[in-house]
Design goal:
Blueprint lengths: L24 H22 L10 H17 L7 E14 L2 E13 L5 H11 L7 E5 L2 E7 L5 E8 L2 E7 L13 E4 L3 H9 L9 E7 L5 E8 L15 E6 L2 E6 L2 E6 L6 E6 L4
Antiparallel strand pairs: 1-2, 2-6, 3-4, 4-5, 5-6, 7-8, 8-9, 9-13, 10-11, 11-12, 12-13
Length: about 280
């Protein structure tokens, strides 16, 4: 065999000798990894969250509380009730990690037929950056808004004459245990007067309260008690204040800044007194 090389033919490299272009792959990969780690470190410490999973349930809960205060402040002389915090566990933050969803509610009973007017009024009074709007879905009006930090605000008609507002976190990492109700609150004069008018004694144990921070300071709160058997009529409450809603199973009235609601729909008499945000 001739040892001469054909013109234009390059001899193959030895197996232990890398091609010149490949010599830069390992250093370039190392530099890229260091750069990516640095950018990630900076982003975690300086950039706002871009998905809700970057905020834990404990971090999102105060945003939900403030949203409820905003909703209360958007009401007029309505009757209303802050409902207990609901925490639903078992959702998936990622395929490998569990999470939980926190929801707070605000129930507003209104005369039948005025549900849309309430939703429109509240939407107009919410902050502009919430982008609140009311549209018709499945034949009923519905309010949607964004309270920021991935907190969804919703308002819908859940029954004739009952509008329910809510603020929810979506699925988040569950990093804390949350107290759903604050026990030990005194019943107060408004509930005491309502109980006596209906022939019920004030309960021996203290009432429970749900609260939310008002935009201008202070707290909006609902104090509630469950009394005894349902009375034959709620008409005995009429002399106690200015009527807001008058139905056989539900009666609501106002005493100054306090809204009192008597509800007998659950088979037991339930009374709540709610104090809103000043101004």
């Amino acid at each position: 065999m001739s040892g001469a090389l054909q013109a234009g033919y390059a001899p193959p490299s030895r197996p232990d000798q890398p091609a010149p272009g490949r010599r830069w792959l390992v250093p370039a990969a190392v530099v890229w990894a260091v750069l990516l780690a640095g950018l990630t470190w900076w982003s975690v410490r300086h950039d706002p969250p871009t998905v809700k999973e970057q905020r834990t349930l404990g971090e999102a809960a105060p945003v939900v509380d403030r949203a409820m205060g905003r909703l209360v402040a958007a009401l007029d002389d309505d009757a209303w009730e802050l409902t207990p915090v609901r925490v639903a566990r078992g959702c998936r933050v990622t395929p490998l990690s569990d999470g939980a969803t926190l929801t707070r509610g605000l129930d507003v009973p209104v005369p039948v037929g005025s549900e849309r007017a309430l939703l429109d009024r509240v939407a107009q009074r919410l902050p502009a950056d919430w982008r609140a709007g009311v549209a018709t879905e499945a034949g009923r009006p519905r309010l949607r808004a964004d309270a920021g930090e991935f907190i969804a605000v919703d308002g819908r008609v859940v029954a004739d004459g009952l509008v329910r507002f809510s603020a929810a976190t979506g699925c988040r990492p569950a990093d804390t245990e949350l107290v759903e109700l604050l026990p030990g609150h005194p019943v107060g004069p408004e509930l005491t007067a309502a109980l006596r008018a209906l022939g019920q004694a004030p309960p021996p144990d203290a009432a429970q309260v749900a609260a939310a921070p008002c935009p201008g300071g202070g707290l909006a709160r609902t104090v509630g008690v469950t009394a005894g058997a349902v009375p034959a009529s709620l008409a005995a409450l009429r002399p106690l204040g200015a009527v807001v809603v008058d139905r056989p199973e539900l009666y609501a009235y106002r005493v100054g800044s306090v809204a009192v609601l008597a509800d007998s729909t659950g088979g037991k008499l339930r009374l709540v007194a709610s104090t809103g945000c000043a101004g």
